[in-house]
Amino acid sequence: MMKLTDLQNKLQNEFQIAESKSELVEKFLDLGLPNKKSEAYRYANMDKLFDQEFETLEYNAKELAYSDKILIVNGEVISMPKGIRVYYANTDEQNINLEHYDPLYFLGHLLSKKSIIIEIDGDSEVDILHRITKASTLIHYRIVIKTQVNKHASIYEHFEFDNAHESLLLYGYDVDVQKDSTLTFVKNQHSDEDAPTIIASHDIKVEKQASLTLQSFDFGNAPALQLFNIVLEEHAHVDMGQLLYLWGNVKRGTISKIIHRGESSHSVQEAKNILEGSARGIFDAIIKVEHSAKYTKTQQNSKTILLGEATYMVAKPQLEIYIDELEASHGSTIGQLDIEQLFYLRSRGITEVEARKLLIVAFANKLIGTIRDKRQEELINQNFEKAFYAQNQKTNLL
Amino acid sequence: MLTIKNLHANIGDNKILQGLDLTLEAGKVHVIMGPNGAGKSTLSKAIVGHYDVEVTEGSIDYKGKDIVKLPAEERALEGIFMSFQNPTEIPGVNNAYFLRTALNAKLKHEGKEELNAAEFLRVMREKLSSLEMKTDMLSRSLNEGFSGGEKKRNEILQMLILKPDVIILDEIDSGLDIDALKAVAEGINSMQDGKRTFLVITHYRRLLDYLTPDYIHVLKNGKILKTAGVELVDKLEEEGYDWIKAE
Ligand SMILES: Nc1ncnc2c1ncn2[C@@H]1O[C@H](COP(=O)(O)OP(=O)(O)OP(=O)(O)O)[C@@H](O)[C@H]1O
Ligand SMILES: [Mg+2]
């Protein structure tokens, strides 16, 4: 059994008497477990989580089987497709980004002495399935993605939860998008009563002239946060699209920091949030343009529709700018379904539920419609349907 | 076919209709004329169940029951259709998908087989060409960026495929060029089968010249103040509405 506050205390005591001090531990202790005063987690109160007792697991590297995807069950890699190298390696402190803002990024690395390394050769696509089947358990792992210069890779991330309530899944990617390469990353996550709390903390570097497309589709009523720290080098490009569709009494969303470091780097970040029940959504997103990042272009936008009486959206797009030569736009809107549009549809015999669905789909489709891979789009649409009908009964008029 | 008795209706705090009586007969073309702001659109909204309009008194009997409390979609499925004076734009909802959803809802309601995408497209092609509409109108978002005339044609297109029993056309002629006016009038006439009833709201005789109106009603002061034959149109065009007083 383990409690994260106890772990923090233990690290603190050891650190004080240690002869050679680990920078990683120091960083974690500096930031400390998130509380109400933490900058990064100011809208996502998670205090209770850190006082909860969790079961812990031993991670043993096993011989991997072959399958059509990379399957990670309770933090252990079970199988992988041919043509992709997956292995464990000791976490090299050199490769940890000490500038990251998220204490749980450092904690993840502290807990996971070895990282799962995924090497994608050439131009290829891979599915990663995270399967969690344990309740009241702390499951943690770090994944390093290695791509190749001048190639195009796609990663499609999926989740399955079975009886994983009261657990905490703490994981994340360390990614270096190589020079002149492109990486497309699509996350499709539906999490409900059976799911653990999920904290996904990522560190991504986009090298010169590289391009990253990040699309996340988050559906559910279980708590989850995704945190990104993304650094853009010269002429690097990132295009982020985030769909959040929540219901029940949940707090969930994205915290991100995109840092323009190189000249002529370009970022686009578009969030679409649909909140039902008494869900609270978070979009706390900073774009920082450093002195070195002249001629940067950045665009950031959050749009929300509130469908429940007690819903609440924290949408905080922020720009932190240290130069003059840039093009920047950002904004945020919060509204409801348009009653005139709803009426128009209903006046043609379409039920209120189906009319709502048409309008919500229209809102979400600006993101779902941009998925290039048709199979993935279909899978995301299935989760969308599940989400919609979790809240809206199918009606059959007589 | 549809009988309105002593209808009182408000929009917000304004009393717009104040004891309106009107009977729409099967197979007939009824025309409503009247000054701006008299409540013509309010009347049509009351018939289709628009949320703006609150009916405080009276009844609208259709197919043997009072529909005042019936949700809009059920009125539509039962065969009541209104073309909007200002059709709303719905970005992101594909026009063809919308039309098929509406048509299939109606077919299902009638216990008929729903159409698949290919069958639907075949039906649409024919209707589109009769209205001189381009096929790309189908692949666009519903009414988004449509010109005034294109929106009106899209309304008529919906009428043609949904085949309603009560057809209310609220200023369908406004903003139409001469060719479009003809095409729209032909569309309307093609729906005449001796059973359907039409309620045409208009300010001008241009459209009426192409139709065969049976009754001209004048709506003023919250009521139908006068009902006559088509000859009334000329007098109204010459003299306006001032002379019309409660009979
Ligand atoms: N949403 C609304 N809010 C407030 N007042 C309204 C609203 N809709 C209509 N009204 C008012 O109700 C009255 C009747 O309007 P209605 O649209 O029914 O007139 P109309 O006879 O159709 O006029 P027109 O010939 O100009 O189309 C007008 O005074 C109008 O200003
Ligand atoms: Mg009007």
UniProtKB/TrEMBL annotation, chain A:
<dbReference type="Pfam" id="PF19295">
    <property type="entry name" value="SufBD_N"/>
</dbReference>
<protein>
    <submittedName>
        <fullName>Iron-sulfur cluster assembly protein SufD</fullName>
    </submittedName>
</protein>
<dbReference type="InterPro" id="IPR045595">
    <property type="entry name" value="SufBD_N"/>
</dbReference>
<feature type="domain" description="SUF system FeS cluster assembly SufBD core">
    <location>
        <begin position="131"/>
        <end position="363"/>
    </location>
</feature>
<dbReference type="GO" id="GO:0016226">
    <property type="term" value="P:iron-sulfur cluster assembly"/>
</dbReference>
<dbReference type="InterPro" id="IPR037284">
    <property type="entry name" value="SUF_FeS_clus_asmbl_SufBD_sf"/>
</dbReference>
<dbReference type="InterPro" id="IPR000825">
    <property type="entry name" value="SUF_FeS_clus_asmbl_SufBD_core"/>
</dbReference>
<dbReference type="Pfam" id="PF01458">
    <property type="entry name" value="SUFBD_core"/>
</dbReference>
<feature type="domain" description="SUF system FeS cluster assembly SufBD N-terminal">
    <location>
        <begin position="18"/>
        <end position="56"/>
    </location>
</feature>
<comment type="similarity">
    <text>Belongs to the iron-sulfur cluster assembly SufBD family.</text>
</comment>
<dbReference type="InterPro" id="IPR055346">
    <property type="entry name" value="Fe-S_cluster_assembly_SufBD"/>
</dbReference>
TrEMBL record, chain B:
<protein>
    <submittedName>
        <fullName>Iron-sulfur cluster assembly ATPase protein SufC</fullName>
    </submittedName>
</protein>
<keyword id="KW-0547">Nucleotide-binding</keyword>
<dbReference type="InterPro" id="IPR003593">
    <property type="entry name" value="AAA+_ATPase"/>
</dbReference>
<dbReference type="InterPro" id="IPR003439">
    <property type="entry name" value="ABC_transporter-like_ATP-bd"/>
</dbReference>
<dbReference type="InterPro" id="IPR027417">
    <property type="entry name" value="P-loop_NTPase"/>
</dbReference>
<dbReference type="Pfam" id="PF00005">
    <property type="entry name" value="ABC_tran"/>
</dbReference>
<dbReference type="GO" id="GO:0005524">
    <property type="term" value="F:ATP binding"/>
</dbReference>
<keyword id="KW-0067">ATP-binding</keyword>
<dbReference type="GO" id="GO:0016887">
    <property type="term" value="F:ATP hydrolysis activity"/>
</dbReference>
<feature type="domain" description="ABC transporter">
    <location>
        <begin position="2"/>
        <end position="246"/>
    </location>
</feature>
<dbReference type="InterPro" id="IPR017871">
    <property type="entry name" value="ABC_transporter-like_CS"/>
</dbReference>
<dbReference type="InterPro" id="IPR010230">
    <property type="entry name" value="FeS-cluster_ATPase_SufC"/>
</dbReference>
<comment type="similarity">
    <text>Belongs to the ABC transporter superfamily. Ycf16 family.</text>
</comment>
